[in-house]
Predict the structure.
Amino acid sequence: MSDFIGDKRQYALSFTHQNFAYILGGISEYNIPLNDFYRYNSLDDSWQKLDSFPGFARWSAASAVNNNSAYVFGGTTLTSCLNDAWEFDFNSETWENLPVIPAIGKRDQICFSLGEKIYLSTGFSTNPLTFHSESYSFNKQTGIWSQEDNFPSNPIGYGTATYSGNRAIILGGFKENNIFSDEVRQFDGNNWLQLQTCLSIGTRGMSAFSIDNKFYFLTGKKADLTLSKDFYALNFTDENEVLIFPNPSEEKTNFSVQIGSKMEVYNSLGENVTQFEFNFNNNFSYTFEKSGIYFTKITFPNGEIQTKKIVIL
């Protein structure tokens, strides 16, 4: 693949649209905030420098894509956090300055798009360092900001969000008192739901993306202060659909089953090794202590029963 044509940087913003990926700003290796803007064409593996972003040079901003526009919010300069908002039109390749966020400037917020709204939540401000749980939505049709219910946990920064269809998944982050979060939450535009964690340890600053109705999370910094290359996936199943992955597995196996179902797992001798009721979320992870063949018995809310075989290497 061709090399990135811009300068070295970190904490840059990225988003995608159709066959293109975009990189905006960040902070250089010399601690200089940047406002340059680039487009990558995946069809011919080429980079192009676009007109510079018209707002303040920044890093650690938040973004989401909705239809033919990308939205960019906040971030930080060398002196302060920002509360401005911008829209980039993919067709005209022009920027529009939107009404400011009705809140203090913040960096490292989570951002996602559901329907006609773009949601912005959590993050932290500086001078003094303060973590936040406030949530806001921007209606692209009316151009109006609204305050939403707070993020239902302790205030966090460095959380990670990705979204698809009518669902956003928020994972990990960093809380006050140097606490790394391992929480996983779902938001559908109306309600927050806590899911069973898929993280082996609290992690902040992860990368995330979604393909169809599957959500992927990777990398980040763990609570033991090591950098991660772990790769996680969350699946959301249709009625009476069962997802088991990986299978075969070396130890840990993930299950995704319709909410309201009950699962029992047996070894090859017919002994029950674990069971789980999917009352509040549809994901469950289990680490098998011994290799061998196992069988699951899944009872769905409508009474249907399915059995699946699991191979532990």
Summary: The two ends are 36 Å apart (CA to CA). The chain has a mean pLDDT of 91.
